[in-house]
Amino acid sequence: MKFNEETALKTAEFLLQIKAIKLNNSHPFTWASGRKSPIYCDNRITLSYPVVRTFIRQQFAHIVNEEYGTIDLIAGVATGGIAQGVLVAQDLGLPFAYVRSEEKKHGLTNQIEGVVQSGQSVVVVEDLVSTGKSSLNVVNSLHDAGCVIKGMVAIFTYGLKVAEDSFKTAKLPLITLTDYNTLIKVAVEQNYIKDDDLISLNEWRENPELWSENKIKEGF
Questions:
Q1: Is the residue at 216 inside a domain?
Q2: How many domains does the structure of the chain reveal?
Q3: Helix (H, G, I), strand (E, B), or coil: what is residue 22?
Q4: How far apart are CA 49 and CA 55, in angstroms?
Q5: Residue 220 counted as domain residue
Q6: Whole-angstrom distance, CA of residue 197 vs CA of residue 71
Q7: Per-residue CA distances from 21 to 38, 171, 183 (Å)
Q8: Which domain holds residue 97?
């Protein structure tokens, strides 16, 4: 769920303002999963803008305090959640660790980097949630290390049903600063997108799998 409407609108405005949101209906983006999409959210760009970066850090810290209470550790999802997680941990005076999607193939072969102890309560920081697979893989790794995961925070979610179902099955609370519907609403109000783009974005949101399959058939 998104934190609140005011924060969601402000976050969406920031993401559009700094061009962290990329829209391209004629030449769709390819996600790591292979799925095609007319929209791509690059939240790493937020780190280059102090005002935006500070706003996100403050909102994350507020959510952790208000929604999750006392915790022992902030964990970032590599790579997008590392910097954001460090900022939040610094703000809250908490230890920090980060988790890769899989173990390293060399050196100590760690998947979790940093000091993590069994029994610690943890909030996981992610930059965005698409299908939720990589985010929940990190959560499972922390569970295996004996951690108690109180929840996850993220800047943005596409709101895909597959992700919602996965988080529900995992019984993991997810709170985001903004979401797809809010972003599109703000983009329309600011004339950021054209009518044709809006139609395609709505079609993708209703059935991303079918939209992707059609684009692949068209040769994209």
A1: no
A2: 1
A3: strand
A4: 10
A5: no
A6: 43
A7: 11, 29, 9
A8: 5-210
Distance CA 168, CA 214 (A): 29
R_g over Cα of the chain: 18
**pLDDT the model gives residue 102:** 65
Residue 21, token pair as written in the block: 């949101």
Strand partners, 175: 153
Residue pLDDT, tens place only, 83-111? 999 999 999 999 999 998 766 555 555 89
Model confidence pLDDT, tens digit, residues 107-140:
555 899 999 999 999 999 999 999 899 999 999 9
**Residue 56 forms part of a structural domain:** yes
Average pLDDT for the chain: 92
CATH code of the domain containing 89: 3.40.50.2020
**Helix/strand/coil for 146:** coil
Q: How far apart are CA 67 and CA 151, in angstroms?
A: 9
Q: How far is CA 139 from CA 20, 50, 75, 111, 146, in A?
A: 26, 29, 9, 12, 11
122 found inside a domain:
yes
Please state the pTM of the whole predicted model: 0.93
What is the identity of the amino acid at 10? K
Which of the 8 DSSP states describes residue 2? B
Record the tokens describing residue 44, joined without a space: 């790493």
